[in-house]
Amino acid sequence: SDEGKLLKNRNNFLKEVFKKWKINISHLNDELIDSINNIIRPPVWSTPLVKDVIDNLNKVCVESINVDEIKKSLLVFDDMTKESLKSLKGLKVLSLWIQKYLQFDDVDNLVSPLFILYDYRIVLLHLQSKTKQEHNMEFILERLCIKKENSTIENIYSQLIIKINEMWEKLYQLVVEID
Q1: Model confidence over 62-88: pLDDT tens digits?
Q2: How far, in whole angstroms, is CA 54 from its chain's centroid?
Q3: Would the pTM count as exceeding 0.85?
Q4: How many CA atoms within 13 Å lie on the side-chain side of 143?
C-alpha cells in the first residue's frame, strides 16, 4: 500500500541518519506503535475515517520529531547557538537540520508535505471559523495542486500521501549521497 511504502521510506531515512550521524530524528517510538498500525487507507471515504488516519500520520511524521536531539546536533555548526535555536519548533528544526546536514537549499519545498499534513489535521480536527477553515483548505489545495472542483476527500488524502512519500524518498536519497 502507499501508506506502507510511506512508513518504510520514513524508516529508511531515520535509520540511515542514525547510521551516519548517530542522531535520532524521531522519538517516542514505542508510543507511536498504535498510530503506525492505524495508518491505513480508509475503506470508505468519510471525514471521520480520514480524520483518524491524518491524525495518526501527523503524530508519526510531525509530532514525533525529536526537537531536543536535533537542536543539539545543530550546535556543531558555528552559526548555530542555543539562543538562535530556542524559538524553533518541530518542522522548522527539521528543516534547518536538512539544510545544514544534507546541504539542501530548497528545503521549504521539500518538507512542504509535512506542513500541509499539519494544516490538514488542523482543518479536520480543530474548531475554526468557517472563513478560516475555507482559507486553510484553499491553501492546502493550492499546495497539493488540486483544483477546487476536484477537491474530494479521497483526492486530497491520496495526493498528500504521494507527496509525503516522495519527500521521505528524497530525504533518504540525500542522506545516502553524503559521504
Answers
A1: 999 999 999 999 999 999 999 999 999
A2: 11
A3: yes
A4: 23
